[in-house]
Amino acid sequence: MExxxxxxxxxxxxxxxxxxxxxxxxxxxxQELAILETSQFGRMLVLDxxxxxxxxxxxxxxxxxxxxxxxxxxxPRQVLVIGGGDGGTVREVVKHQRVEKVTxxxxxxxxxxxxxxxxxxxxxxxxxxxVELICTDGxxxxxxxxxxxxxxIVDSTEPVGAAVGLFKKEFYADVYTALRDDGILVAQTESxxxxxxxxxxxxxxxxxxxxxxHLYLANIPTxxxxxxxxxxGSKKYDPLNPLPPEERLTVNxxxxxxxxRASFSLPPxxxxxxxx
Amino acid sequence: MExxxxxxxxxxxxxxxxxxxxxxxxxxxxQELAILETSQFGRMLVLDxxxxxxxxxxxxxxxxxxxxxxxxxxxPRQVLVIGGGDGGTVREVVKHQRVEKVTxxxxxxxxxxxxxxxxxxxxxxxxxxxVELICTDGxxxxxxxxxxxxxxIVDSTEPVGAAVGLFKKEFYADVYTALRDDGILVAQTESxxxxxxxxxxxxxxxxxxxxxxHLYLANIPTxxxxxxxxxxGSKKYDPLNPLPPEERLTVNxxxxxxxxRASFSLPPxxxxxxxx
Lengths: 276, 276
Prior knowledge:
The structure is a homodimer.
Chain A (H helix, E strand, L loop, with lengths): L2 E8 L2 E15 L4 E7 L3 E6 L2 E5 L3 H15 L5 E6 L4 H6 L7 E5 L3 H10 L1 H4 L7 E4 L3 H4 L7 E7 L13 H10 E10 L7 H12 L4 E8 L7 E8 L22 H6 L5 H8 L1
Parallel strand pairs in A: 6-7, 6-9, 7-8, 9-10
Antiparallel strand pairs in A: 1-2, 2-3, 3-4, 4-5, 10-12, 11-12
């Protein structure tokens, strides 16, 4: 039997992967979760039918969401990650020796458990002494925190279900308050080709709160269109003039200082979208 | 009835597009040709089951394959385009006022005819007085040409059928000879994720002939992985230090001087591949 998994990336577009086996699937309190063994991408985490991460290309997303803000901030000691229960972002964050503590707030404990069991490459750093794992709603967690964090990373799913609020202005305002006065927010903000309204709205929401806002890009073949955007809001530091990264980061597969700078060079079809 | 077209991008991966209609299809002397009207991408040219170009994102490929070499070369007067019978590359080339003549060598006249009928956005410049269209095999055409062209653009299909030879060293050697002593070659060299051996081989072949060789990247959602590579071989000019482009190029949707420079910033997973 040939088994294929298809993600309907849009109503008119599907990405189909040959599947060697379904390693695990369940209905959690929040979503449908599956771990697939695919022929092209190795193990794959699927939530509500949407590809979240694969062994093949997870490093690109995780390096870019973590290192861009952490290299921009000269002293990132306290870091909050909202979402990202697979552990991939945390794995990259703890590579920064100046980071003293990472708080990972994931709404769905079963994502963490599945990742521990089936995606050890991603979840390996969850047991680091620097990491505190809290399974609760990030929207609630970030409320009434004042000047606690240097960097907040919003590693959300697509804006459906529990993640809808993670793209709204009220949430970004709470994040702003939870950051120190030189803090940095970064959020994944979907495909510049297929999610233009969402991207524009998230960008304008962050822009209305933070003195500096920039979009940057990364190539992620398993995400719709293969091009992904991240939006960074910074109270003080300029992400276009990052510090040289710590030695350790030279082992990356995607991130370099050159790639960091290049990722902010937007094609006009994207920069015009943000101006409009 | 719901009609879907699926390109098997690899044996284990398919991209599927909802199709409103098949506008045209035929078996030419060289390949199977179809023009589809898709819901996501508008009209699409398909050759041998592989997406060649779509109205949605064709500008990215065509701007990047044309402007990077033409902005690098200070006096690009004579340009040869091999392949690219849809006319999209030629459309971008003739935007450069310094270009006096473009020779388009396409092996399959039916690609040109189908593009004239169904893809006027791409084929519009084929009637420019600067353009000479020759329907013949590019491999043969380029043989025994000596120091004729300033820029040669290899706008090939995937390396199957007639296009296999367009990735080989013998062909690149003929291209080298056909270029003037400050000439530039650029070739599309497939996905850095899924076609690594081909990319590496094309790069090394070009590197063994030209004093300067560089890879650059563009985001093309309808091509496998969404990330595409181009390899540039230059006898003299440095593509990393391009001239400011002519005024006219400011109307682009993807290419800018900033995007040009950023497109040469390679993630380590690609640069290590080229070193190996």
